[in-house]
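Researcher: Structure prediction, please.
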Amino acid sequence: MRNSFWIIGNNMVETAATEKRIVAFVIDRAIEAVLYLPVWIQLGISYLTQGEYSVGWRLVLACALMHLLYDWMFLYFLGGTVGKLLFGLRVVPRFEPHNTLTLWQSLLRPLTDRLSIFVGQALRALAFLRFDRTHVSDWVAETWVVQRLPRRRRPVRRFVLALLIILISLSSSFLQFYRLVHSARMEDGRIRFDASSASDEDSARL
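Model: Predicted structure follows.
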């Protein structure tokens, strides 16, 4: 989709402004942190009482499912997460923006977003290469983030910015995932992290 707008009757929807999407993303990440608050609390308590970070895998799974349910239901019933709704943004079907999202599209988009666990924001950065600012999750679920208010300027492709974000995200995400896997172990129904192993590994490198 090269055009950044779509005419619907007497109305026009446009590609959501990048700055609005960034702020909306930050707000949604803050909500995500709240949804995972039980995990952070249990990790902190275990470190203070046992000297190591540990958390029940069932709790992690429950928080992950709650987060997915939040994204899924808000997209299906309201057309956007809290961050997007606050800025007047909506997620609509990519090729039929006058319709609402189907139940499957509302689920498929946040499921694809979970790939960020492995690659950070690299997939989202692909949006800077397109006029309609869609990325992998949009391509898979066939969605598009729009606004009804006119944009102040036409979207442009930002190749250098996209490449920079992709390189930084991939390198940092792979490194964090590697350290997480090598410091974690499953024991007695809990995921335990050896806090000393990460610091020892860093000291050895120095």
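Model: Residues 54 and 187 are 9 Å apart (CA to CA).
Researcher: Thanks, that helps.
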